[in-house]
Structures are given as C-alpha cells and as structure tokens.
Amino acid sequence: MAKKKSSADTPYDIALKRIAKCHKNSRLVLDLSHLGLTTVPSEIRQLSAVTVLNLNGNQLTALPREIGQLSALTKRHVNNNQLRALPPEIGKLSSLIYLDVGSNELTGIPPEIGQLSALTDLDVGVNELTVLPPEIGQLSALISLYLRDNKLMELPAEIGQLRAVRLLHSSRNELIARPPEIGLLSKLAFLLIENNRLQELPESLRKLPRLKELTLHGNVALNLHNEVLGPTYAESSLANPPADPMAILDYYFSRRLDGEEPMREVRLLLVGRGRVGKTSLLKALRGEQPNETEPETPGITVQPLALKCKNGVATGHVWDFGGQEFLHGTHQIFLAERCVYLLVLEGRDGNWEAETDYWLKFIQSFGGDSPVIVILTKYDQHKFSVDRHGLRERCPQIVGFVETDAFTRRGIPELTALMEQTVNEMHDVWIGVPRKWHRVKERLTALDKSFLEYGEYQALCAETGVPDDRNQDSLAQTMHRLGIALNFRDHQRLSHTCVLKPEWVTEAIYGLIRFVQERDSHGVLDTTWMKQALPSKDYPADKYSFVLDLMEKFEVAFPLDGTQNWLIPELLKEEQPEAFTEFRGPGVQRLRFLYPEALPPGLLPRFIVRTHDMSAAHPNWRWRTGVVLEWQGAKALVRLNCLERRTEIAIIEEEESKQKRQDDRQSLFDLIRAHLAVLHGNVRVHEEVELIGNPDTWVRVSKLRRFEAKGTREIEEETKEGDLTTVKVTETLNAIESPQAREAGRDDDSRRMRLFISYAHADAKLIKPLSTHLTILGQRGYIQVWQDTQNGPPECGRNPSD
C-alpha cells in the first residue's frame, strides 16, 4: 500500500525529494510537472547528467539561474506556467535540442537564445511577445519555430538566416510586416502565419522550393478567401489536405500584377426530401410557370439565377438536388462551404421537426457555417409553422424563414430579396480575382463540352494568357474551390479531367445507381453494364474509370476484389442476412453511439465503403444498415438502428490468450471509432458501453473517462433491474478502447507526428494493407497522415514530441 503524503509535503518539498532521488540514482529524466510549484529549488544545479526536464503545468514566474548548469539537457518542457522572462543562462544549454515555453506570459526572449546551436525545436507560442531578438537568426539547426498567439509586430530581418527552418508558426499574433530575407528559408516546408495583421506578402515567398503548407487565415488585409486558403493547420488531414502554397501565392500575386475584379458567382443549393416542390420553387424564382405534374428530379439540375444585390448583380447557380433517400449519400460530392443552402420543407405530413433536424445536420456536415434559408413551401395548400427560435438555436447560420407557394407566388418576392441580401453579405462573393482568370473562366463556360482533358485545359490557358504550368494548376485548384469547374487535383487518377458541367457527373452517378437499382442486384454493379447505363455520346468508355473513381473517392462505391464488379452500399438489402447468434451472450463486448438530434448522413453505407477491406472475407455479411468486420483475432458486428437513432457495436475474439484478445479487441474498437468520428462530423453523439455481466446496463463513456482522469478506480452504477453494481473504471474503458487512444483524446493534435505517404499510382494497392494500421496509430495519437501523390516525397517536419 502506498504511503500517505505528509501534510508537510509542500510542492517545493516534493520537488526537492525528486531532485535528490534523481541525483542519487543518476536518472536522466526529471518530472516536476503539475506540482503547483512557484519556485524551482536551486539544488537542480546538481543534475548535470539530466537530459529531459519537465516543468509543465506549474505556477512558475521565473526560472533559477542554476538552470544553466544542466549541461546535458536535451529537452525542456516549461509550458503552461506564468513565466515573464527567461534567464540569460539559458544560452549555456549547448546540448538543448527542444525547448517548449509556450502558454506563459513572456514579453521577450533573451539574446542568449542565439547560443543554442543544437536547438531544432522552439515553441514560444501563446505568450505576450511583441518582438523577437535578432540573435534568433543564429539558430542554424532550427527546424520548428512556433510563434502562435503572441503580439508580434514584425519579424527581425535576421530570421532569414534560419536556413534549416521548416516550420514557422505565428498564429494569432499582430504581425504587420514581412522582411524580404524570408526568401532565405530555402528548406522551409511549413509556414503557418494564421491570425496576424499582414498587410502584404513578399515576392520572395515564391522562391521557397520545399514549401508544403502555407496558412494565412485571419490576415484580413490580404483579402484572401477561405476557398483559396484551404483548411487551417489544425483542420488539415488526409481527408482535408492543405491548399497548395504555390496556388495561394500565384493567386495573390497574379491579382496584384494583372488587376482584379470579383467573380460575383455563388452556389445556391436546394435541398429537402423528394416531392416537396423544389423544382417548382426554382421555376417560380426564375419567373417560369411551374408544372402541377412536375416529374421528380432524377439527380441534380443546375440553373442560373440573377441576383440584384446592393454590391452589384451576382449570378446564382441554383443546384436542385433530387430528394430520394438513396441519393442523399451521393450529394456530398457537390455540397460545400461558401454556398447558400435553401432548405425546403412541406407541412402536409406533419413531420417537419425530424425532417428539419436531419437536413440541418446534413448541411452542417458538408457546408460548415454557410448561410441557410428555411423555406416553408406549398403553404397555401397546407399551412404549418415551425419552431423558428429553437431551430436557430440548433443552427445559428439560419438567416431567415419564408412561407412560399410556387403556384400562387406567395413569398417569392420575399425569398428573392432574402437571397439577395444574404449573397450581398457574403464577403467571398465580392473578393477580386485576377482578370486573366476571368478570361479563362469565360472561355471555359463558352465551350459546348461537359469536360476537358487536362492537356486541353492547359492549351486553353496558354491561349488566354496563363502559359505557366504552375499557374495553370493553381487556377484549376482555385476554380474548383470556387465551384466554377471541378478538378480533383488531390487525386492522381481524377486530376486528368476538368468537369465543366456538374450535371455530367451527377447524371453518370445517378444513372448507374438507378440502373443497378432496377436490376435488383443487391448493390452490385457489373462494369460491363456501364455501356447500357450511360449514353455513349456523352460518356466515352475511357471515362468510365473516372466516374467509378469519383464514386470511390466520395464513399459511394468500392471495387470488389478479384472481379469486375463494384458494390454500392446504399443499394444493399435492407434486411440483416443472418441472426448472428455468436454476438450474443457472455464474452461479447458492446458499445453504442446515440444520436439525440439527427443521424449523420449516409452513415452505414459510407462506413461500409471505408472499412470494406475488413469485410471482404464475408461479402454476404453486408446489408444497408450493418456489416461484420474482422481484424486480427477479433470480429465486430456494426449496425445502425434507424428508428432509435443509434449505432450498435458488438465485438468477440477468437480463443487466444487474454492479453492477445484484449489487444485485438482494443484495436478493432479503435478502428471503428476512428472511422465513425469522421462520419459523425458535427452531429452530437453520446457514447455508451454495456457493463460486462449486466446485459442492457449502459454507462456513458465520457463519465468513465472523467472518473479515470480524477484517479477514481471504482464507481457504483444502477443495473437494469435496479440493483447497484461495482464498475471498475479503467478496466471497463480498456475493454472498448486502448489507453493510448484515451490519452490522445486529451492531447493537442498539433503534437502528433505528421506522416506523409508518397508512392507511384501503380503501387496504390500495396499501400492498402497499411491503411488500417495507420488508422490505428492515428486514433492512438501517434501520427497524422496524409498522402502526397502529385509532387513526390515532401520534406517532413519534425514533431517536437519525437
């Protein structure tokens, strides 16, 4: 039994004892973190052999001068304290390679910092810095420099001497100038300057040959919209890769040199279930007479609509989405941010509340904080009301509600006015783009073609004044982000085709889905059917692979190994194929996710696509709302209960050692959770675990995690029968996730090692077996992965926690 801590054991006393013990046992690591220290004992000078010192999470306002005597120190963590200054003696730590003094109150850095010739990683983020010393330019070994959340007004010109720097992070500072010497950073791979006050960018940024990521978000004066900037550093991932830095810079400098004018274009997306009158509403908005017997939209149609905004006339491209449920999972291909979402509801069935929750979560999952207009349609036929205040609480981006009727024209002028006001307030619609881009766009839209080969697009660009390959690529990426022409530059096979008319894609995908549905083939698409399903005049045979690859990229379908067939999970049988009695009784561990507001869109079909390698051994164990997965020695049943809005997971193991079983089960749970976390998006979720030996007794996982964090070993929980049972907190958590995954959930994701994977397209199949292992490592907080299949192997930034 551990000894009770004496009441005389102050934080300072504890620190003294740990220092003495470390000195006596010649230990290389000293941990004084989270003790509540206000002072570090001077006796620390005795530890000349210590290599790692952790002082995180205390109340230190200063460090002792004796710190300079730790001559062997290689890593020092002092973040989350109250340091106001660093002692000059820090310059004596000649072996130091990693220094973290983030989240303090530093107003300056001593010039002696320049003496740390071995330093590779320096984190001074989240402080009160207003200036950096010129001596920082002497840090010739520096790889990573974090300057986020400070008050820097400028960077010293000497920072250009940091020839080895690969990461410069100065998020949320007040930087207003950039020295031209920044071009000397010839190995720079990550340049993160979010939320500063940059007035302009130096031309020398274009001369950084290894730059892989550039974040300029929050620098308002640069006038760069999010479609050009791409995701922030924290948001970037394999599924959401960062924007190409050269694309950002080419856009910025082309606009300055060639002049600029706004695109004045925006997408307006009509969404809602089938038969609510979206097409009739669109006709009324365009001044056309709707048809009482309007046929159901088979996929997506796109129509232009002139919007007379105060800032000028903008062109709204109104996308009318088919509302049939089996098509919902495919809508995500075209849903995006920087759009206006028009949610159309009908009151005849009286289920507006569940329907609205579903569609609002659908919009938020794919459209971020894009504005939403809720339209109560066919109002003269069926008057109804909705809880406007409650809906705005759940979806703050709702800008208004309009009661309409396409046939009587009720509310059409009001809806038009609200759309014009909303678009007028969308800053990105009115941001200028280079004039030569306008010329390219006009040439593209004038073409009577649905798609262009990328070589044809490049020739057109050259004829229109954009001859450089890199500028052409930048323009293609930016037009894709703006929704003008689709080109998936992040996908090697898809990047060879520019889609000029989105209907060409939608008609192909929906045509295949409907063809398979009519064949009643239980979701299996035989690729030899494509000639029958798609008209040859619009879809030459050499474009079949493009359509299939696009369906796979957006988790609509996947190829079945060893055949010419593809599976579309949205069209699988509804019924569960077997009773799965093996997933009942003792030895089965259960987990479930509850969705109190709405189900994530396309949840199980997309999950089946993402995990299809793990269900390949038993292809008959897939149905529309469930699947059986196998990984190592464990097997999982994952199914969705739509009526009760929950995902159920049950895992069993093969008969092996107890430790092996737990490792396999933890790995499979971590894998499932990692995929579901992506698919859940921003849908609110409650996670519960069933207690072993107490069927149908569930406890919130978040509750157990809180108790574990407090050091509580056991809690009492009421069973289904009303009795009390003792729950071992950590043991219960370990049954459904690895301790590493829990620790990762508490850590800052920015500390993960970023792993880049570069490979030839021909070797893509060789990478697939690795993906599951990489997913586990990502879930457990070790890595963050994305692939670079275009430009060869990048410079990988070193993670400070390595």
Structure description:
By secondary structure, the protein is of the alpha/beta class. Helix content is 27%, strand content 19%. The chain is built from 20 helices and 33 strands. A nine-stranded parallel beta sheet has the order 1-2-3-4-5-6-7-8-9. Helix 15 crosses helix 16 and helix 16 crosses helix 20 (764-779). The longest helix has 23 residues, at 658-680. The protein starts with 10 loop residues before the first helix and ends in a 15-residue tail after the last strand.
| Radius of gyration from the alpha-carbon trace, in angstroms | 29 Å
DSSP strand tally: 33
Helix-strand makeup class: alpha/beta
Name the overall outline.
globular
Major sheet size, sense and barrel closure: 9 strands, parallel
Fraction in beta strands: 15-25%
What oligomeric state do the depicted chains represent?
Answer: single chain
Number of helices: 20
Runs with pLDDT <50, length 5+? Answer: 1-7, 160-167, 169-173, 175-186, 788-802
Q: Look at the structure and give the mean pLDDT.
A: 81
Through-space gap between termini? 35 Å
State the strand order across the main sheet.
1-2-3-4-5-6-7-8-9
DSSP helix fraction: 25-40%
Give a topology summary.
Layout: H1 11-24, E1 29-31, E2 52-54, E3 75-77, E4 98-100, E5 121-123, E6 144-146, E7 167-169, E8 190-192, E9 213-215, H2 226-229, H3 245-258, E10 260-262, E11 265-271, H4 278-285, E12 300-309, E13 312-321, H5 328-331, E14 339-346, H6 352-367, E15 372-377, H7 388-394, E16 398-403, H8 412-424, E17 432-434, H9 435-446, E18 451-453, H10 454-463, H11 469-482, E19 497-499, H12 502-519, E20 524-526, H13 530-533, H14 544-553, E21 558-559, E22 565-567, E23 589-594, H15 603-610, E24 622-623, E25 626-631, E26 634-641, E27 646-653, H16 658-680, E28 686-690, E29 698-700, H17 701-709, E30 714-718, E31 724-728, H18 729-734, H19 739-746, E32 753-757, H20 764-779, E33 783-787
Parallel strand pairs: 1-2, 2-3, 3-4, 4-5, 5-6, 6-7, 7-8, 8-9, 11-13, 11-14, 14-15, 15-16, 32-33
Antiparallel strand pairs: 10-17, 12-13, 18-19, 20-22, 21-22, 23-27, 23-28, 24-25, 25-26, 26-27, 28-29, 30-31
